[in-house]
Amino acid sequence: MRAALLAVNGPNVGFVVREASLNEDADLVAEFEYPALDVTLKTRMRLRPATHEVRVLEERWEPTADAARRQYGRGPADKVYRQWGMPGADGRRHKAETFRFGTQDMRYPLQRAVLGAGWTWRGVLFRL
Question: Which of 19, 51, 75, 84 has its CA 20 to 30 A from that of 62?
Answer without folding.
Answer: 19
